[in-house]
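Example A, followed by Example B.
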Amino acid sequence: MKENSSVKEKVELKRELGLIGATSIVIGSIIGSGIFISPKGVLEASGSVALCMIVWVIAGIIALCDALCYAELGTLIPKSGGTYTYLFLGFGKFVSFLYIIQATFIITPGVFVVFMLTFAKYLVSVIPTCGSPELLEKFLAAAGLITLYLVNCFGTRYGAHVSIITTFCKLLALAVIIVTGLVAIAQGTTNELGTGFSGTSRQPASLALALYSAIWATSGGDDVTRVVEEIKNPTKSIPRALIFGILVVVVMYILTNIAYIAVMTKTEMIGTRAVAVLFAQRTLGPAAGIIPMAVVISTLGTTSISLLSSSRMTYAAARDGILPDLLSYIQVDWLTPVSSMTTLLSMSLLWLAFGEIGSIINYLGFLGTIFKIAIYVALIKFRYRSFNHVKRIVKVPLLMPVLMILMNIYLFLAPLIIEPQIEYVYVGGGFIVCATLLYLVFIHFHFKVPFYDNCVTVAQLVFRLSPPFRNADTD
């Protein structure tokens, strides 16, 4: 389907996200269900209250350094795609292809499934049910995914509204926990808050696991760099959103853990499956039901934000020719990348129906650390080679990406050394081999799928899709 030039110039992503929307993406993408369900990992691994709090502070500093590095990248390269885009510009097609394949078809849809099954489990826990809970949970998860897909398809601003509302609800729920805990402390209930370093684990491996858990819980803020082309005044909004959002999350996490430890013992926190639920039962009485609903809202909001940001990454890869160009096509009425969102939805529903994705995510997840290392190497490369002539609005000290490289090397090696499993090699190596074969066939040798053009034409006519308008900023 051919578009005339007057129409085609309008077929591009719209800048509909302001500072509040960008900040809600940062906060909402970090705060998932984990802080409500299982923040016990850090406490269990560290062994003491004092070391637990120190680990959270260290994780916050690392998250802030990561945010500042991404702030430099996001303001230097005003293109959608985030990590994918920086890998593409820093290391070329092959590395970025490896990243986008595992992100689009395995990791991101798998994470959606995990989030939405959590959403369904907690929703089922507060409504009367009969029959098979597992079947109902899968149905609710699928319904939730489709609803979020439709909301984000109709316009970026609608997805942003969901992000802002759910982020506010998350912060409100955490505020309830924090205030309740502070009141309990004021009334003399401290349990093990004053135990300091008592019980601290002496094993280096334990500290590594504690730090790993805390860093995992504070990661995800870089999602905002995937939607750069839809943010108003990105050179100012991105660094402000990243820095403010990370600081809010870290402070809230530390205060929430203090509230938990004040009301419950270490044994209780480590032994329960849902820390916030037990906390609410102890302190909120009849109002304890707000916590399961907080988990429902939190997972819903996080999935919506991830769908919004991840679809832009897939869109950017297709626009660069790394994925089929149909995935970069934009719906001409809503000006959203419907093709890329449909791909993510389809893969998510497939994993939900037939796949056991949890173990695959665990085994492939550590590969994400390699890509993180590559990002910081790319930042250094951009400064002294590729973009050395470009004036930087945000410029972090060189020591910061160097330290982040060393930290991520440690995080990559830690699970292999602490708990070596041959499955890491099999799954990771198998993925790299398969992805390399796909790259050689479709990217290097340009194999053309039969009837692909016919399918693209039908999709354009049925869904009113058009290739994105290209300009100097996106090419």
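Example B, a separate protein, is given below in the same form.
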Amino acid sequence: MKADTHHTQKFILYAAGIFATYFYFGILQEKVTRGKYVVETTDSEGKKTVVTEKFTFALILVCTQCIINYIIAKAVILIWPQNEDKTTHLYYASVSVTYLLAMVASNMALQWVPYPTQVVGKSAKPIPVLLLGVLVGKKSYALKKYLFIFIIVIGIVMFMLKENAMKGESDVSGFGVGELLLILSLVMDGLMGAIQERIRAEAKPSGLQMMLQQNGWSSIFLIIIILLSGELFQFIEFAKIFPDVYLNIFFIGVASAVGQLFLFNMVSEFGPLPLSIVTTTRKFFTVLGSVIFFGNALTGRQWMGAVLVFLGLFLDAFYGKKQPKKDIVK
């Protein structure tokens, strides 16, 4: 009984850490990727010109996060040494590629779709994580698990579609580059979860070890790509005009690193599917919090979506652990 209580407390701690850090992370990310950078210049004749630009350096943004994540994971491991990690380099290289493609595609999508659209699209993350966990990760789930997750995802989508529907934004109703990038990101999320499931089953590394290796490999890949693509030099020119971007990116990296400390401990101890459910519902509660604290009215469809989310979470928590023997790695 004490072991179960301790297990539950750790799950709540990790979930709370993910909720708090990624709430702040989301605000900063939207500020950087969707905000307008404006500066006033004066020519030799004294004529003033207003320059407005957008941040388009998705590789730089993700690379900064990976490097800071790696540094923090390395520092924590030096303070609290871990057992030997027997995971093969191929596994970590593979999971890093899927992680990078998911992150970069998701960030690049913001150049074509508004932030709420990205959030709605990524809300479907548990579905590819579950399906590819079965196909690639050799995971087996009870049929009711599929039903509970489907209820949660449908509820989240119903709740969060309101903003775009009311604005009538054309890029939401259409299907273009942004939506294709979101689909690619979801597929990569699913593959990443499947590989992580195999790593957990075969080598059982700690969350910190997974965080260190995944971000280390990702940093190497990204640095090579950034240098070859010339994005680094373009970003330096951009930052000369808008130097505040350095501080914004740094804080995004710190928020990401702290969040990943909770994230990788959760995936190491509980698996990628519970993690994907936590990260997905975190987006829902972010919006729900704005309703509670700022008095934004809900439509009938949103209330129905809220009920479905809570229903799915309750059913999964209450019935999802009834058959632990089925939720195993083959």
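On Example B: The chain is about 75% helix and 5% strand.
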